[in-house]
Amino acid sequence: MALSALFGEAFEKLLDAIGPDREQAGTAYEELRLRLIRFFRWEGCPNGEDCTDEVLNRVAAKLTAGERIANPVAYAGGVARLVLKETNRKQAREMQQPLAGPVDRAVQPSFARELEESGEQPARRLRCFEQCLGDLPGESQQFLLEYYRGEAALRIRNRQRMATRLNISLNSLRNRALRLREKLEACVGACLGS
């Protein structure tokens, strides 16, 4: 259901289910929306507002379809957990896909952006980076892209999940990333030197 679908009848039904009085329902709706956004941010979801909109759209769609929901706030919490699982599965599938073609700037690790933005020849640096990354085994490519993906809190949560999934400590994970990064930087340096 698209974001714009939460207007008219669907929005009215959602407000009616949340509270008997329009003002109270509006306040409760905003509180619910903010709670959902905080939930998704806490869970490391990169697009918490979009996920929140998806949850509210799904709840409104159920109400519009005639389903009776006794406690829409609790129901929205359950839907939020499902949306989070779907989002995590989607991210995991994307990380499993092999690297094809040039590195997209949106998923480019932060150290690659540093390489690109430093020095006199950013286009050449980026080409060398892409070539050197492509020369690494697929497992190492995926490791580096996952390790450096995201910003701040999301990156920290991703690294914790990686360590858990790989059954290693965070320190071991950092050491592995450091060795791969040094190897990649040496390759980029050699490429630029030639």
Q: In words, what does this structure look like?
A:
The structure is a single chain. With 194 residues, the chain is an all-alpha fold. It folds into two domains: 92 residues; 93 residues, no CATH class. It is built from nine helices and no strands. The longest helix has 25 residues. It is elongated and about 70 Å long. The N terminus is likely disordered.
By secondary-structure content and strand pairing, the structural class works out as mainly alpha
What is the terminal-to-terminal distance? 53 Å
The low-confidence parts are 1-5, 104-108
Number of domains: 2
In percent, how helical is the residue content?
A: over 70%
Q: Kindly provide the radius of gyration, computed on alpha-carbon positions and rounded to a whole number of angstroms.
A: 22 Å
Salient structural properties:
mainly alpha, 194 residues, elongated, disordered N terminus
What topology does this entry show?
Blueprint: H1 9-18, H2 22-42, H3 48-64, H4 72-96, H5 110-117, H6 122-135, H7 138-147, H8 152-166, H9 170-193
In short:
The protein is mostly helical and 194 residues long. Helices cover 74% and strands 0% of the residues.
